[in-house]
């Protein structure tokens, strides 16, 4: 082999390694990283199949409301600070505009579409509604027809399990009937 072919082979190998580094590092992080907590979210299914986008279920997750006497701490996007309740379900502690410094046992996830309104005219309590970034669950193509038969009725109660990491990233780990 001449020097040009060896150089080309080395460059191709480096390019392939660079291309594969990011997805492999993310997979390793989500599978073996110790800095996460698995949360459960109560969910209801309201769109069990969409032929244009593939097999997924659209979920309505709760809790998706936070109440506070503070006025407008965040706008449109922000972070929900959560912790586990006694049954392992997520509980929203507060909404913040920036990623906060968190004590042990608390995690933050970026949430979207935050809007607020006064709960009632007599109280000063504001209700903040938001959507979680993991409100879709893509199904295994082989198991999807079975699950779709069970989910034909709207508002089927489900539990979505999500690993939430210290840096705010997340990985959906599964869904089961409630």
Overview features:
2 helices; five-stranded antiparallel beta sheet
Number of helices: 2
Q: What is the helix/strand order? A: HEEEEEEEEHEE
Helicity, as a percent range? 10-25%
Pick out the low-confidence regions.
none
Gyration radius over CA: 21 Å
Number of DSSP-assigned strands: 10
How far is the N terminus from the C terminus? 63 Å
Strand order of the largest sheet: 8-2-1-9-10
Oligomer: single chain
Let me know the largest β-sheet.
5 strands, antiparallel
Query: What's the rounded overall pLDDT mean?
Result: 79
Question: Beta fraction of the residues?
Answer: 35-45%
Structural class based on helices, strands and sheet pairing: alpha+beta
Task: Tell me the overall shape.
Answer: extended
Detailed description of the structure:
The strands form 2 sheets. A 5-stranded antiparallel β-sheet has the order 8-2-1-9-10, with no helix packed on it. The chain is extended, with a radius of gyration of 21 Å. With 178 residues, the chain is α+β, with helices and mostly antiparallel strands. The termini are far apart. The protein contains 2 helices and 10 strands, in the order αββββββββαββ. The mean pLDDT is 79. The chain has helices spanning 3-32, 144-150; strands spanning 36-47, 56-62, 65-68, 76-84, 90-96, 107-118, 126-131, 136-138, 156-165, 170-177.
SSE inventory with pairings:
Layout: H1 3-32, E1 36-47, E2 56-62, E3 65-68, E4 76-84, E5 90-96, E6 107-118, E7 126-131, E8 136-138, H2 144-150, E9 156-165, E10 170-177
Could you give a short description of this structure?
The chain is of the alpha+beta class and 178 residues long.
